Amino acid sequence: MSDAPFYIGLMTGTSLDGVDAALVDFSTVTPRLVAAQGRPLPQSLRTTLMQLQRSGNDELHLAAIAGNQLADCYAEAVLALLLRASVDPARVVAIGNHGQTVRHQPEAGYTLQLGNHARLAELTGISVVGDFRSRDVAAGGQGAPLVPAFHQAVFADPGRHRVIVNIGGIANLTDLPVRGDATGFDTGPGNVLLDAWIEQHQGQRYDLGGQWAASGQVREDLLDLLLAEPYFLLPAPKSTGRDLFHLRWLQSRLSGRSDAPQDVQATLAALTVRSIADAVLLQAPSVDEVYVCGGGAHNALLMHGLTAALPGVVVATTAALGVEPDWVEAYAFAWLAQRCVSRQPGNLAQVTGAKGPRILGAIWPA
User: Are the folds of 6-143+327-364 and 147-325 the same?
Assistant: First the structure.
């Protein structure tokens, strides 16, 4: 293992809850997750990143400063992970840094993730691969989701029809049929609305285990109103983010209503479950197994809801496949960094809608 080609993947997702870092060994045919850990983002930085989700005063300056602060957080996460794993930084080929998405507008020809990759390379002494999504968008794609190629490489089974569901701020699925191409798309809100609503009403970052949602009643008329969002009916390839699903989107649909806050939370949980389950059944009606990763894998209400909505289908977390659900996306960006360095495509054109396979990412050498 002394000569193992290590890569590190970094991810700060739509939920803005922290930095996930994964150390991956690529010395074998199937890469091996060696160590992983998470670090919270400072509240001041999280607040700034939330503000940057929409236009405001002096946003170019604020975005640049936030990118520097993110790079500092990423460097701390990388060095702490290497210390924990007793791995010298010199043994790491590259860091795959997704960065923090603040705009995702593929229909306008761009997607923007903050994170000063040059600063991260300088602070760690390790080469950095970043800006993974832009090349796919330049090739006519959505730039998302990018994880299906990784899911196919690591989780596919030749004898079982599997679907991998990531429930982060936004939820996405990867269909891994026994025969045929892997496909995938963003299904809609995962935790983004649940987190925003409980933070507004309870002052909490997230609904632990879905307990607050479980205390309410699903309002079916409100659920129907939320499901009427045109995005859900769009054909794939498609992707979405906070640009569409945000607190203002929800509040516009609550206008004139007087639902109890906990009932709204219960209905938002039902929205996440229904939009995922409907997408699974439409995309993969013969599915055998659904494996969930991301923060939503820890929400018992969501997991029970998916189990009930998908009768006869095995529903579990990716821990059953050997990867804890918290680390799948960071693991994926280590994999994408390795693909870039070795000049191999990282996208699936049938997923993103790009004109064809593309090498994703740009490299900031150490």
Answer: yes
Q: Which residues of 156-193 are buried (b: 16+ CB within 10 A; e: fewer)?
A: beeeebbbbbbbbbbbbbbbbbeeeebbbbbbbbbbbb
* Mean per-residue pLDDT pooled into runs of 10, the chain (366 residues): 79 88 94 95 94 90 97 98 97 97 95 97 98 98 96 96 97 96 97 97 96 98 98 96 96 97 98 98 97 97 98 98 97 98 97 98 98
- Chain-centre distance for alpha carbon 125: 27
Closest CA to 297 of 166, 183, 178: 166
CATH superfamily assigned to domain 147-325: ATPase, nucleotide binding domain (3.30.420.40)
* 86: CB partners within 8 A, 6+ apart: none
pLDDT of residue 2: 45
Tokens of 280: 């699974």
Dihedral sign computed on CA atoms, order 274, 277, 281, 284: positive
The first and second tokens of residue 207, run together, are 């609904």
* pLDDT for 1: 38
By CB neighbour count within 10 A (0-12 exposed, 13-18 middle, 19+ buried), where does 307 fall?
middle
Q: Where are the domains of the chain?
A: 6-143+327-364, 147-325
Tell me which residue of 51, 46, 166, 53 sits closest to 105, measured CA to CA. 53
Give the closest residue to 6 by CA, choosing from 325, 337, 326.
337
Q: Which CATH class is domain 6-143+327-364?
A: alpha beta
Tell me which DSSP letter residue 286 carries: T
| pTM over 0.85, yes/no | yes
Pairs from 154-160 (Cβ < 8 Å, separation ≥ 24)? 154/30, 154/31, 154/323, 154/331, 154/335, 155/291, 155/318, 155/321, 156/182, 160/288, 160/289
Give the count of alpha carbons within 13 A of 303, CB side only.
Answer: 20
Q: Which tokens go with 68?
A: 């520097």
Residue 34, class by beta-carbon neighbours within 10 Å (0-12 exposed, 13-18 middle, 19+ buried)?
middle
Measure the CA–CA gap between 306 and 17, rounded to whole angstroms.
Answer: 24
